[in-house]
Description:
This protein is α/β, with parallel strands linked by helices. The chain has 17 helices and 20 strands. It has helices spanning 3-19, 23-33, 41-59, 82-99, 145-148, 176-190, 208-217, 230-243, 320-325, 332-336, 346-351, 369-376, 417-427, 440-449, 461-467, 477-480, 507-522; strands at residues 69-77, 125-131, 136-143, 152-155, 158-160, 170-172, 198-205, 259-267, 275-281, 286-292, 298-302, 338-341, 357-366, 388-390, 395-399, 402-407, 431-434, 452-455, 468-475, 486-500. The strands form five sheets. A five-stranded mixed sheet has the order 2-1-3-10-11. Strand 10 (286-292) and strand 11 form a beta hairpin.
Amino acid sequence: MNCSNFHTHMLELIRRTSAYLPPDVTNVIETRQAFEAKGSKADLALRLVLQNIGLAKRQSAPICQDTGTINYFITTPVGFNQLDLQEICCDAVVEATAKGYLRQNSVDCITGRNTGNNLGAGSPVFHWHQHKKDTVDVRLILKGGGCENMSAQYSLPTTIGEPGGVSPRRRLDRDLDGVHGCILDAVWQAQGKGCGPGFLGVCIGGDRALGYEFAKEQLLREVDDVNPLPELAALEARIVEEANRLNIGPMGFGGNLTVGGCKIGARNRLPASYFVSVAYMCWAYRRRGVVLDESCDVVEWLYQAPGEFDNDPASRAASAAGLQTESIQLGADRKQAITLNTPLSETDVRKLKAGDVVLLNGTVFTGRDEVHKHLFKGGELEAIKGGIIYHCGPVVLEEKGKHRVVAAGPTTSIREEPYQADVIARFGVKAVIGKGGMGAKTSEACKAHGCVYLHAIGGAAQIYAACVREVKNVYWKEKFGSPEAVWELVVKDFPAVVTMDAHGRSLHAEVAESSKKELAAVL
Length: 523
Ligand code: SF4
């Protein structure tokens, strides 16, 4: 095997996967954007998503800052040395991380230490197969944590919904109707937390481990392919049609596009078991592939439009300056948007209403899981007092002694629900920026202390990187690792939607309630 050649192709595969959304996925988003009501939050979200896709491509930079779990699906000829191949893939991952194509995303569960290069026990993830051809087929899926957390597994028969709870209560049996109920329940549970519109990979059957694995493998299929099994083809179409009637919409803002595609496979099961496993994928559905011959030359790039890489921006050396000069097109929303300048006063905050679009100027502090746990347990950070916390784990490169933010979209806020109310109260936080919304405890704290929840567009990492004008400081980088550190960022024209105001109104609670009724109608 020509190793240097192979390394080059594997590095390029990571770059393309991280920065270029596949055409079949982009087509769905582009086509369906036209169906959203003009001026709606769903329309705004999809317009920013599409701009972000274009920006990532032009800058050759990550579509989303969460470059996710690195999932390789590799098929080799019989007798091929898979160990050598795995080593080369790992070397490419290390280099891609250093170049900023991948975020430092591998954390030791025992020590809590981020390995810093995306290698470690179980990362990346390799799925090996063999075929009777001479070629090596390498496919890569980068699957973010926000959407992975929304994946679900059901064991039939089961009953969904809690007695008197928020979701409709239904018994689901061991048949395709039961499978249908499980999938729609998973979509309803996800709401906007997994950066919808979502794409679903589903496995019926198998054991628990195979179920999840095969569900994820369904995401290798093209969005517009047709399942060869007529029963499953019909179910896939039905799920997409009915999920889009739930009115959960992009980012959970309400709207038409909740699910862009559903792919279902089946594995034999034990008589005692009937699992339904749902792999929820966000709109940042990053998968690419390459087929190599025996000399490691490229036979074909997969999931690629003809001529897609003819004017590849990689050769134009995307620059930091370029990142910052792209302006964000908000259209009519710009005129209606409320400009907020930090520091925010309580009066500024209490004037805001759920549904307002804002453009934020000034200083924000990133803070996510480790930071919230630390602050909740008594940690101190004077700088954030009276400030704005941004749930974000950015990709930041250090160049000539300066930090450059390469990607900086929001992370899922609900994980901070156990801590957020206390942090708002103790530090007088005036705004929390994130995505997917937060719960009743945070809503109460917003009301009591004059704080607001601003929903940024999940996955729009290039839009938000372009808003960052300066990295002023970083706290706790050594302690928690770069994505978990507190980055003090100066932003300009940072777009967001007020989804939880200081008067107790939550758009998330409203969409969950209205979509529950729609779900009851299709179950
Ligand atoms: S788009 Fe959302 S769910 Fe997907 S990787 Fe990015 S932050 Fe995570």
